[in-house]
Known about the structure:
Elements: E1 2-3, E2 10-15, E3 20-26, E4 32-37, E5 44-49, E6 52-61, E7 64-71, E8 85-87, E9 93-96, E10 102-106, E11 109-115, E12 129-135, E13 138-143, E14 147-152, H1 153-157, E15 166-168, E16 173-176, E17 187-192, E18 196-201, E19 205-210, E20 216-221, E21 227-232, E22 238-243, E23 247-252, E24 257-263, E25 268-273, E26 284-289, E27 293-299, E28 304-311, E29 317-322, E30 328-333, E31 337-344, E32 348-359
Parallel strand pairs: 11-15
Antiparallel strand pairs: 1-2, 2-3, 4-5, 5-6, 6-7, 8-9, 9-10, 10-11, 12-13, 13-14, 14-16, 17-18, 18-19, 19-20, 21-22, 22-23, 23-24, 25-26, 26-27, 27-28, 29-30, 30-31, 31-32
Amino acid sequence: xxxxxxxxxxITVWDWMAERVILKAKAYSQDxxxxxxxxxxxDILFTSGFTHIKFWKMAQTFTGLKLQGEIAKFxxxxxxxxxxxxxxxxxxxxxxxxxxxxxxxxxxxxKAHLVLDAENKTPLHNGMIEVILFEDDQFISAGHDGFIKxxxxxxxxxxxxxxxxxxxxxxxxxxxxxxxxxxxxxxINMVRGENFWLVQDFKGRLWKMNFETLKSEIVLDxxxxxxxxxxxxxxxxxxxxxxxxxxxxxWDYVKGETLAQKQFNGxxxxxxxxxxxxxxxxxxxxxxYDSGIVRVVSVNEKNVDLNLVFKAHDAPVIKLAYAPNQTMxxxxxxxxxxxxxxxxxxSDLSLYEPVCMMHxx
Length: 361
């Protein structure tokens, strides 16, 4: 099965060995995040996405094979975007919500709304559940709060709501993915290895978590969105990248390692590294943001320090550059403005004195 993009979101079922299309259907009128076959049979399919999860059957009709879909009915529950889901062996389906709870579906109706505490409706996760996996008679859920939790299949399968829809369940075990300084991962995917999980983090990191100890380590660390610009040092194997996530990252491109990084609010559009002098040692960078702000930062062996911040334009800064002799910084904005600042990379690294602004047509 393949899924087309906007605006049609068509699901197409293929006989890929014969290279032919068997069935086509419009999945939904809004974004569809995920589409998959049932793990137990070939004639049941699922799609989920913006405010929906849909259950499909390939059914024989008088006019041949048809793809029939039933949209899930949230009923009294708040509608939710759905990313993670998994089918139980008996045909019921477990799906996650953006509120951090699980919903057990029977047909297209809610059988139970699973929470930690039924009375207070305490969610299972603090934020969207992106991943639901099934292994060794346990469900695994993971989400934006950086937590991975294991749940008993028997407890979930037996969940019955009476007058109230909420059913309390307790995790079998819990693990969290976070850095040494307490920055939790925003988990969006998990893949099983031989004795470890690879965990994809929306913040641009790839983690490896040991099965037994549940300890995790960062394997790779990138930007968590588009990289907008890069500047390369004139005096060493260092470069600086900036991106959509507001991150300023300094790299040793020979070792392929991050030297240091710091994140600021906003979309970072452009960067330039100053040429080396005895004072600045080539470790000074100016970064321009969508907000019109320019941040001047310096990097040492482990940290990125903010030296100076000023608002150069009311429009996004789309390019900036230091003069080769380090006596000028020029910034360019999307509205056609160009601003010149006097600098001194040899004797006064705090000097950023406005000189003049001009406007290009």
